[in-house]
Design goal:
The chain has 10 helices and no strands. By secondary structure, the chain is mainly α.
């Protein structure tokens, strides 16, 4: 058991080149370390394209198997993370094409005619986080669910760019290589995705404002009953 643990710790400490060499040599601990190192990025990329958690997990698994079989072709021209992301994106696009054929409809490629004339924006650093409380954790979880739902509602072209740029914090160049699109297109789609998200969330807030400090129901009944009793 200690020997296995030592192998895992050794693999996790390897740099990218060493990790690839160990995987090519058939080291299972190295392949496990590789997957754990890049799982989150690849899952988020797949989830942004497929909009289904289970389907995204399947796509990542298939991408890892494809990467393992073709690891001999990895030359290091791009980073390993970028190479793996490109493989999972290809797997997802193949799944979307198969789904499109099954549904006998053409895939919708929204926004393809608007990839010009806009520039990327500079993200503002988040303010320092206050001390964590259960209420704050719950509010953040609810906000995360809202944001995930709104990201799912973005057009496909914008959705993948937004997740890789804003969630995984990839550079414009890394995102362009991962998705196989020009850097200018990455900038434009990221800008449009952020704009669409702002508009969508603003509409949610506008609707929610009408229900702030809601007074109907149990609270109303309780106050009326207490006042009547105290007369």
């Amino acid at each position: 058991m200690n020997q296995l643990q030592n192998a895992r710790e050794s693999a996790h400490a390897l740099d990218e080149v060493g990790l690839v060499d160990r995987v090519r040599a058939g080291d299972p601990a190295a392949f496990e370390a590789l997957m754990r190192r890049y799982n989150r990025r690849l899952y988020r990329a797949a989830r942004s394209l497929l909009r289904d958690a289970a389907e995204a997990e399947d796509a990542v698994q298939e991408a890892y198997l494809a990467a393992y079989r073709s690891l001999g072709s990895f030359r290091g021209d791009a980073s390993l993370a970028t190479w793996l992301t490109r493989i999972v994106v290809n797997e997802c696009m193949a799944r979307l094409r198969r789904q499109s054929r099954r549904n006998n409809i053409l895939p919708i490629a929204a926004g393809r005619g608007a990839d010009f004339g806009e520039t990327d924006t500079v993200d503002q650093a988040p303010p320092p986080r206050d001390q964590e409380t259960p209420e704050r954790s719950l509010a953040r979880a609810e906000l995360r669910v809202l944001l995930e739902r709104r990201i799912d509602g973005l057009p496909e072209d914008f959705r993948a760019v937004f997740v890789l740029r804003s969630v995984e914090e990839l550079s414009v160049e890394e995102t362009a290589v991962s998705l196989g699109i020009p850097e200018a297109t990455v900038r434009t789609r990221h800008f449009r995705a952020r704009s669409l998200l702002r508009e969508s969330i603003a509409q949610d807030l506008e609707i929610a404002e009408r229900d702030v400090f809601d007074f109907d129901g149990e609270r109303c009944d309780r106050i009326v009953a207490q006042v009547l009793q105290a007369r």
